[in-house]
Amino acid sequence: MGLDRNSIIALVLIAIIIILMPYYEKMVLPPPPTSPVQSTVDSTVEKSVPQTTPVSEQRETFDAREPEAQVEDNLFKTASSQFNVEVEQDDSERIFTIDNGNFEVHLSNKGGGSLKAFYLKKYLKYDSTYVNFIDSHLNNNMVFTFVDRNGNIINTGNFLFKSEGNISKKKLNKGEKFQLTFYIIYKGQRISKSLTFYGGSYHFDVNIRFENPDELLLNNEYQIGWDNGLPLTEPNLHDDNSYYQAYVYMAEELENYKIDDVGEKKPLNLTGSADWLAIRTKYFLMSILNENKENIIDGVYLGGEGEKFDDFVHGKYDVGFNVRYNNKADNIFRYYFGPLDYKILKSYKRDLDILVLNNGWYERTFRFFSLLILPILEFLYKFIPNYGLVIIVFSILIKILLYPLTKKSYQSMKEMQRIQPIMNELRKKYKDDPQRLNKEMMKLYKEHGVNPMGGCLPMLLQMPLLFALFIVFRSTIQLRGAPFIPGWINDLSRSEGLWHLPFSLPFYGNEFNLLPILMAITMIFQTKMTTQDPKQKAMIYIMPIFMLMIFNTLPSGLNLYYTMFNLLTIIQQLYINRGSKENEEVAVAVATNTKKGKSPKKSKK
Hints:
Number of helices: 16
């Protein structure tokens, strides 16, 4: 016989927890939007460009509309066009292009270096265009504001700054740096904003300077930040949006801020000095780091509003620092625009890596195990430059590592099967005396050397590893865009999407994917090998069908791993069964010879 009823129920509950916990939000939300909605949310200031087109050759279509003049309590959303102030500025908008190898950024002198486009040259979207952090629909950008001595709230984004130097395009090699300085003369005083770019990095530095801050700034303060969030980049918008939120890191503690509803969300104002602010999606990050320890931060602000796009809410996050101007030091803030890659973020030595594998309490709970798995995958990739093959090799290594637990579990199950008839007799005999029944059961276990938890305990010990694997294959950028078999599995971070059905089935959806079907088939064979009780045979098909429905639209990398894991488990069980059968035959032969008064023959081995 297989596992008893209570064990089956326990395993079903464990499986449900494993599968549904990370996807609870996805299951309670409506299905993903159609392509028209996606194009609305994922619109950029650039036209769609084929993968083969260089970034520098992509045409730009800028939104030339002026921001509305408004005065609010939130200094990051205010304009200064309503004030009659004396400003010496440039007479037209000018565009500057910086290519540092990792990104290409198009800057405008408007606002002293506002971003018209920010492309990551090593990362593509599902439509083969480059990932772009700037979205014309969101109107997202850097913010630099202050209150002057007359109480006017000044948003420098409305001014056409002059620029020092005549270079409009610059390509940087690794190790090189280049600085662009923009300035205006406001009420006779110079305000400058210098942007320094570094070859081969994912960041640039912003340095703010006021010529005579005491004559310009009210309370000697200004604000620097980011408005209106980030665009979503993945085809599964619901999944991408489930990771989308803002953060502040201060006093070695991480505080998150998430917009879930339509309309303006109550802002989060925190006093004290903060290390950095950040906004993340599933795979990408925008962060502002307080780079100079001498900068005096009087607090931070996190706010924004949610916009409804068909059947989901997309947040437009506003984050920023309240800074007390330091006339004796550089006022430097570092803007990071790049991937949520653990190694890259770790290299900054500012605890930015805390955001990797840290979405929700379930990721935080198993983060330790996830961070053990990730470097192993990256190490294998150095020798096997195909993450699909890496997953196959990794699944083999995991099966070898878990073999002692698997063998112990199987042996315990077999022992329980052998004594099952005796247990049934004891249950009938002492059905009216529970205490005596427990006593006789324990005696039976002791006589036969059986641990009643021996079958389940090894599986429970594997739970942290299984959770961690689920999280790593679902969330890490290493698998994003990584192909396995071109034409079948083109991206291990997405479902195969071989073709779409003309209708949608409940729970299953409208995608036809092969790997989840193969996973379900291997699971059926695996379950058949361990289930002998006719009453439990329904479970042979119920769980695989349940898993098929849940896993159908999950990343193909995850399905590949579980398919291989099941297949290897079948091979492993066949091997264990063979060894167990040989041992039983030897035991029967020895017992027969002993009864006949013969000594057992020594093995030729």
